[in-house]
Amino acid sequence: MSNPVKLSAYSIKLLRIVQGMSQKELAERAGIDPKYLSRIERGARPLTPYNALKLRGAIDLSDRQILQLLAAHKRILH
Known about the structure:
It is a single chain. It contains five helices and no strands. It is an all-alpha fold. It has one domain: 434 Repressor (Amino-terminal Domain) (Orthogonal Bundle). Helix 1 runs antiparallel to helix 5 (63-77) and helix 4 (49-59) packs antiparallel against helix 5. Residues 12-66 form the HTH cro/C1-type domain. GO terms for molecular function: DNA binding. This is Helix-turn-helix domain-containing protein. InterPro entries: Cro/C1-type_HTH (IPR001387), Lambda_DNA-bd_dom_sf (IPR010982).
């Protein structure tokens, strides 16, 4: 998986699954529309800093993990 957006999207999905959450549950916890979260996880929508912070609280991501996810998305978008 060489596409950084796909890799970071996969990371979000993997973290969610490891913590035993459904997509709907994570979306509710983070205050993100479930369809939008689905698009983020598929790499179809970028992960914005605002939504990254929402996800941080919902799946207990470290500051480092958030920065890594955002950096991966930014590399592919620029």
